[in-house]
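New to this. Help decode the following:
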Amino acid sequence: MNWEFKPGAGGSDLPSDVEPGEPELLEAFDRWIHSSHPNTGRKGCPGRQVLMALALAKEKFEDEYTLNHIGRCAACLDDLKQIKRELTGAGSSR
């Protein structure tokens, strides 16, 4: 899956190469993570520099802590999506 984000239905961000059925799954995950794991206190968040490194990674990103954390932290997932929007909106070659 290509994690270049674009505005989707209802203003959500989806990768640009989603397969049939994936938009609904990704939107359901987004709703679930925001209701179950909002992490408004930013506990354990890896920080913008690490999320930027993930967004810019051309090879497999090896930081398992960060990958697992993003899967349970709406705040970091939102930050990562924002970083990707900034990179693609700024004409990045990503």
Summary: Confidence is low (pLDDT under 50) at residues 1-11. The two ends are 13 Å apart (CA to CA). Residues 5-89 form one domain.
